């Protein structure tokens, strides 16, 4: 594991302790693969390929599903509307 990966992992664990919800859809998330699409991941708010920094000022703790839907695009609540609406109905 690279230094950057270890740093993101440590930040994810620390942030999860104080805020265990997805920054985008606001649902509860968990640490570990057993949480499936609700697994906590670190998203680069501005994609690294677009010049976004690889540090906490550009990171968001989000669920795997929101991270996959957003992909390398800038954060746009409209893109995640389907995910959030579906989750509200399913919950």
Automatic annotation (TrEMBL):
Species name: Tardibacter chloracetimidivorans
Name of the protein in question: HNH nuclease domain-containing protein
Pfam families hit by this protein: HNH
TM segment ranges: none
Molecular function per GO: endonuclease activity; nucleic acid binding; zinc ion binding
InterPro entries xrefs: HNH, HNH_nuc
HNH nuclease domain residues: 10-68
Lineage per the UniProt record: Bacteria, Pseudomonadati, Pseudomonadota, Alphaproteobacteria, Sphingomonadales
